[in-house]
Amino acid sequence: MKLTNGSTTESLATINPAIIESDNDTDKGCFDEIYLEKKQQIEACLSEENVDIDKLREFAISPGGFVTDDLRQRAWPKMVGIDVENIPPKPDEAVLHGHRDYNQVVLDVNRSLKRFPPGMDDNIRLGLQDQLVDLIMRVLVRHDELHYYQGYHDICVTFLLVVGEDVAFALVDKLSMNHLRDFMDANMDRTKHILNYMYPLISRVNPKLTDFLERSEVGTIFSLSWLITWYGHVLPHLRDIVRCYDFFIACHPLMPIYLAAAIVLYREKEILENECDMCILHGLLSKIPDDLPYEQLIVRAGQLYKKFSPDEVAHDAILNFKKSQQLAKARIQNRQKYLKPVKKKRWFPLLYQDGSNIYLKITFWTLTAVISATVIAYLKPSDWDMNIAGWWT
Amino acid sequence: MTTEQKTEVRKPEKEFESSVTVLEKQTQRRIFKIIVIGDSNVGKTCLTYRFCCGKFPDKTEATIGVDFREKMVEVDSENLKLQLWDTAGQERFRKSMVQHYYRNVHAVVFVFDVTKMSSFENMPGWIEECDRHNLNKEIPRIFVGNKCDMTDKIAVNTNLAQKFADSHNMPLFETSAKDDEKANHVDAIFMTLAHKLKNSKPMMPLHLSQYGTGYQNNDIVNINDSPERRGLRRATQDADGNKDGNCAC
Ligand SMILES: Nc1nc2c(ncn2[C@@H]2O[C@H](COP(=O)(O)OP(=O)(O)OP(=O)(O)O)[C@@H](O)[C@H]2O)c(=O)[nH]1
Ligand SMILES: [Mg+2]
């Protein structure tokens, strides 16, 4: 591969000052101070010959995450298990541009201005936008089963800004086959199903709030962009976005929905002060306030995860899913064909990794006419390329 | 506030008296929901932003799922609230996410891009989709060709668009969200719709239009239907609903 670690860092030096300037402004000094010790520990951990992934995972989750983008550049590839020295080369332009999703990607990248640090030189930004298109297309052309969705570019731009095109490609390539896999089906059934985890989580902590939300019929779509962009589309500061990414990379693929539940729970008071009306609540909830205490919410999401495992919540989520399916069916006479063939399938959900050791937890159940979101193989790096379809009966 | 605006209300419980009184004092305000649909990149977000926020947004982003904007308008001295649902154009969203929002809408705005033939050619698909969701066929629908400012790039000529609009019984508007001189035009389009809605008959069955009503939010009374017939009655029901203490409204 052309770009070695060194040159990646170098190319980022032109990007990063702008990011730091606009994003870390006043509290940067204070931030560095608090995490000084942690930074040194991460540094030490990364300098070891055999990096302890478990330990990295702890750093990623605990307050501050990997603290700086320099450390992220080194830690993320380790966490995801990619070899930065062996990144597949970029295919020809014709291949990238010939993909079915190419036009949509270009439209979305052209409209991604907000995601670049304010004050960034236009030429640098335009260059990065070109790289963003390429990086997205590189992943898509490699995996025919992956379908681009609007919002995927919000994830990719985050990686691009932190680690540069090539490493970003390698990271996103792997994550797309794992954490992001469910969002990239031909349709959004599994994405919808993941959204259905949110209410069961909220209701276990706060039934009153759930009741209020359910009565308003606000649904879950206000959190769709949170989930499928890993909050990249909705958090105003890159520093908060990358902090969340540290967390998500280290955790179970369903963690973003646990964070969504934590955010909604945190905003209880504000929510209940409003009218019990779909539009009003959608408007309120879909905009995440600037000043959320992210570290606290991450801890909360982690607690929710420990207390109510995806296994436990799955049942309710499926019921919710069924309920919404039935409602939709009742409303819609000529239902689209794509929902029909899904009958009696067995599911092998919830394979998840605990550190570098594989800890496979496989729950089997038979579902009728329900699509499970949880068919996610979260395996050790060497197994990551395995086709998900292999896990289906 | 004139006394004419007060209406008889059944007062369920003493404790709700004050809320009801607050409600009685409100100007009764009807709310209309309008869904805006069409292919990705045709300018749905820009149009709704132009109307609700009065300018062309300098940085739009792809819409993920649905965004929501609203604006108060005055029609024949009645204040109406228009709620615009700005939906994502990418097919995958429309197929599985947007359906939820077809329900309970009072009007539909179909948008295409006059510089892009495919966005026009996809219109039958959008219309069919809309029909399929059991929308009341009486619901006002309008057909908007956007990006008229790009005069040298026009790909869909007016005749063609007009024919299509006629065949579907919709008025056609050609406009531009970007062109500041057309700003009034965009307003006029939505105002036309508001007029139509104001004069239209109630179309929601009561059970579909039940909302909680937050009296804290003093200037909002959520009424889908003609206020005389439904509004206060609903408010009373909501007050009843309060008794179980599940809701802070
Ligand atoms: N020239 C011109 N460009 C416009 C006009 N309206 C929108 N655009 C541009 O068209 C692009 C798409 O506009 P959006 O409003 O984001 O499109 P959308 O229909 O909301 O797209 P999705 O959210 O993907 O469904 C943006 O780059 C706008 O700047 C217009 O009236 N004239
Ligand atoms: Mg849009």
Q: What is the ordering of alpha helices and beta strands of chain A?
A: HHHHHHHHHHHHHHHHHHHHHEEEE
Number of helices of chain B: 9
Order of helices and strands of chain B: HEHEEHHEHHEHEHH
Number of domains of chain A: 2
Helix content of chain B: 25-40%
User: Distance between termini of chain A?
Assistant: 38 Å
The CATH topology of the largest domain in chain A is given as Cyclin A, domain 1
What is the 3D form of chain B? globular
Number of strands of chain A: 4
CATH homology superfamily name of the largest domain in chain A: Ypt/Rab-GAP domain of gyp1p, domain 3
Radius of gyration of chain B: 20 Å
Helix content of chain A: 55-70%
The CATH architecture name of the largest domain in chain A reads Orthogonal Bundle
Oligomer: heterodimer
How many distinct beta strands of chain B? 6
Mean pLDDT value of chain B: 74
In the CATH scheme, the class of the largest domain in chain A would be Mainly Alpha
Strand order of the largest sheet of chain A: 1-4
Instruction: Supply the helix-strand structural class of chain A.
Output: mainly alpha
Biggest beta sheet summary of chain B: 6 strands, mixed
Q: Give the strand content of chain B.
A: 15-25%
Write the layout of secondary structure elements.
The complex is a heterodimer of chains A (393) and B (249).
Chain A: H1 5-13, H2 16-24, H3 28-34, H4 36-47, H5 53-61, H6 69-80, H7 93-97, H8 102-110, H9 122-142, H10 152-163, H11 165-176, H12 189-195, H13 198-205, H14 207-216, H15 224-228, H16 238-250, H17 255-266, H18 268-272, H19 278-286, H20 294-307, H21 310-331, E1 345-347, E2 351-354, E3 357-360, E4 365-367
Antiparallel strand pairs in A: 1-4, 2-3
Helix pairs in contact in A: 3-4, 5-16, 6-11, 6-16, 8-9, 9-10, 9-11, 10-11, 12-21, 13-14, 13-17, 17-20
Chain B: H1 17-25, E1 30-37, H2 44-53, E2 66-75, E3 78-87, H3 91-96, H4 99-102, E4 107-113, H5 117-121, H6 123-132, E5 141-146, H7 158-167, E6 172-174, H8 183-199, H9 227-242
Parallel strand pairs in B: 1-3, 1-4, 4-5, 5-6
Antiparallel strand pairs in B: 2-3
Helix pairs in contact in B: 1-9
The complex binds guanosine-5'-triphosphate (GTP) and magnesium ion.
